[in-house]
Amino acid sequence: MGLLYGLVSGILFGVLLQRAEVLRYDRQVGALRLMDMTIFKFMLTAIMVASVGIYFLKDMGLVSLSLKEAAFGAQIVGGTLFGIGWGLLGYCPGTAGGALGEGRLDAAWGLLGMLAGGAVYAAIYPALKATVLGLGKVGKVTLPQVMGVSHWVVIVAMVLLFLAMFRLFEKKGL
Amino acid sequence: MKRSWNPYLAGALTGLLLVLSVAVAGQYFGASTTFARGAAAIEQAAGVDTTRYEYFTTGGGKYGPDSLPNWQLLFVVGIALGGLGASLASGTFEIKRVPDMWAARFGDRPLWRNLTAFAGGVVLIIGARLAGGCPSGHGLSGLSQLAVSGFVALAFFFGGGWATARLLYGKGGQR
Questions:
Q1: Of the four, A135, A141, A150, A173, which is 20 to 30 A from B126 by CA?
Q2: What is the tens place of the pLDDT at every residue in B34-62?
């Protein structure tokens, strides 16, 4: 059943990404060049809606969170490396397959590179574990936990921030 | 039908889809781990003893070759199928070797574009596995849960990407 849910969710996500033109290199790199904020409009709206939905259901006791550990060394070094690769490739792990699906052949080379990257990562993992992976671990924490406030306070603040960003994007025609 | 959908509307629907996935299947979106697992499965199929690699055995083999197929692999495959189906149905499917923006700056030879795409893919997955996720896992799923890890990772995804795009395309975003 899990496999079927994965396939159906993936197809629906792929349709939404494709129809909003989020899969395209020109949109992805356009955002990194601060020229075209389409992918951020898509992503930040999704986050707004999902944060309200997930925390509402969590308050009702219907779902649980699945947090990744905050580890500043790993997320700062890994995040920067990811960003460099993203800038070169112009697709991300979720969108590269979809881009190939809409006929972008360069995405196939990106996908092959990602598989090669997985092999390289496994090969260098012991060295990373001994160094950067252990740095600055803070545990599986959320922003409201760290700030000691209700999650709804953070959600409202985040929504207001995103709406202000959207207003700026629209004003500047991005 | 060629006209694209409003990104805010499509994004809001994606948010609902994520909530539904968490509520029904108990799954948050993510994509990058599939490529590490895929590498393990390919190495195993090629006769490599993947247990030689600590990463593929860690956590009871959750990144190892036997972790596939799983929810996330089908999710990633589904995105490709969704992209294919939606582009065919809307008349926006287009075989393209080199993106327009790339061609305008570096020319339309596929060789350089493909080499750069491959190298980008390698670096991106090393970064994503190090950070523990990509814009799906850390971005969509992480920020929706207000995870500290998500905010930090997304900021550096964007920072690294912005710097790289600036090196490639120069200063100033002229359309």
A1: A141
A2: 999 999 999 999 999 999 999 999 989 99
Q: Is residue B51 within 8 angstroms of chain A, CB to CB?
A: no
Q: Chain A partners of B104 at a C-beta cutoff of 8 Å? A: none
Q: Which two tokens stand for residue B87?
A: 């582009």
Q: Indicate if ipTM > 0.85.
A: yes
Are A74 and B131 within 8 A, CB to CB? yes
User: Token pair of B80, please?
Assistant: 């490709």
Distance CA B164, CA B147 (A): 26
Distance from CA of A171 to the nearest CA of B (A): 15
The position carrying tokens 């790339």 is B102
Q: In Å, what is the CA distance from B118 to each residue of A25, A110, A116, A151, B167?
A: 14, 5, 9, 40, 18
Residue in B125, B86, B3 with CA at minimum distance from that of residue A17: B86
- Mean of per-residue pLDDT scores for chain A: 97
Q: In A, which residues are within 8 Å of B18 by CB distance?
A: 46, 50, 53-54
